[in-house]
């Protein structure tokens, strides 16, 4: 009897030691995304799931790198702050690699090139950036679109927490234009036939995966997997799957 109790005890202890390791030796990487930026990251209204180009891309990277991913939906401002502070292991969110961000966080190799573009109503008189003077332009606060419009003199910038709110305001005639990333602009323009893009693409920007500074081990895993993903033509497949041309 005593022996039985001891062996049960031993089994319980061993199980207790082993259980946390049940998912193998892979840690779960927490990846933040601001899922308000279709078609790169958004919530599928039917399933409630976070989907998009970036989600598929990170899943493909994770598969190659042998890491497990958990996506966390976070608003844009806390997302960047959270990556800088190490609240998340990584963020994929159409994040433009730029100097002031590189001071606070690390970036993977670039995976997509985009730019800022103006969107207005089809009957607009605006034909390019110079036409924005004296007008009210909606942006997502804290994005490179915000930077771009804020740097133009004589333009009224209205910042929104989500780009969808800027498009609602544009459709309702409350603002004159929206400035955002090219793939997002194309998505909205194809969805609403009262909208069009206007003028030239204003910037050239590269998207990267952001990570807290100094996690070189995860960064090299991600960059190696990203290189494989590119070589396999997966980025091209995602362009076909998610982007309108
Ligand atoms: N590329 C722009 C930037 O880095 C906008 C990205 C916004 N992404 C998002 N998921 N809301 O500033």
What is the number of helical segments per DSSP (H or I, 4+ residues)? 9
Percentage of residues in strands: 15-25%
CATH class of the largest domain: Alpha Beta
Count of domains: 2
The CATH superfamily of the largest domain appears as Periplasmic binding protein-like II
Distinct small-molecule ligands in the complex: arginine
Order of helices and strands: HEEEEHEHEHEEEEHEHEHEEEHH
Give an overview in words.
This protein is an alpha/beta fold and 245 residues long. The protein folds into two domains: 27-112 and 206-243, D-Maltodextrin-Binding Protein, domain 2, CATH 3.40.190.10; 116-203, Periplasmic binding protein-like II (D-Maltodextrin-Binding Protein, domain 2, 3-Layer(aba) Sandwich). The protein is built from nine helices and 15 strands. The chain has helices spanning 2-18, 53-65, 76-85, 99-102, 144-150, 163-171, 182-191, 216-231, 234-242; strands at 28-33, 36-37, 41-43, 50-51, 68-73, 90-91, 105-107, 112-114, 116-121, 136-140, 156-160, 177-181, 195-198, 205-207, 210-212. Strands 11-10-12-9-13 form a five-stranded mixed β-sheet, sandwiched between helices. The protein has a three-stranded parallel β-sheet with strand order 5-1-6, sandwiched between helices. A hairpin with a 6-residue loop joins strand 3 and strand 4 (50-51). The longest helix is centred in the N-terminal third of the chain and has 17 residues, at 2-18. It is elongated, with a radius of gyration of 22 Å. The protein starts with a helix and ends with a helix. The model has no long low-confidence stretch (mean pLDDT 93). Residues 34, 36-37, 41, 76, 93-96, 140, 143-144, 181, 205 line the site of arginine (ARG).
């Amino acid at each position: 009897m005593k022996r039985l109790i001891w062996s049960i005890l031993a089994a319980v202890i061993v199980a207790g030691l082993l259980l946390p390791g049940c998912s193998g030796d892979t840690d779960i990487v927490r990846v933040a995304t601001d899922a308000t930026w279709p078609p790169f990251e958004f919530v599928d209204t039917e399933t409630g799931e976070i989907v998009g180009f970036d989600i598929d891309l990170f899943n493909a990277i994770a598969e190659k790198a042998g890491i497990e991913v958990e996506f966390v939906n976070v608003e844009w401002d806390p997302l960047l702050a959270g990556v800088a502070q190490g609240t998340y292991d990584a963020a994929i969110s159409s994040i433009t690699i730029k100097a002031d961000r590189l001071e606070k966080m690390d970036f993977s190799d670039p995976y997509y090139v985009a730019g800022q573009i103006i969107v207005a109503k089809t009957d607009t008189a605006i034909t390019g950036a110079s036409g924005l003077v004296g007008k009210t332009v909606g942006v997502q606060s804290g994005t490179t679109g915000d930077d771009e419009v804020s740097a133009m003199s004589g333009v009224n910038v209205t910042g929104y927490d989500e780009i969808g709110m800027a498009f609602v305001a544009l459709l309702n005639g409350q603002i004159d234009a929206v400035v955002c990333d090219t793939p997002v602009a194309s998505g909205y323009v194809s969805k609403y036939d009262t909208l069009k893009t206007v003028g030239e693409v204003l910037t050239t920007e590269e998207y990267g995966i952001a990570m807290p500074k100094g996690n070189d081990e995860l960064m090299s895993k991600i960059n190696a997997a990203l290189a494989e993903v590119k070589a396999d033509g997966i980025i091209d497949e995602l362009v076909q799957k998610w982007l309108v041309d």
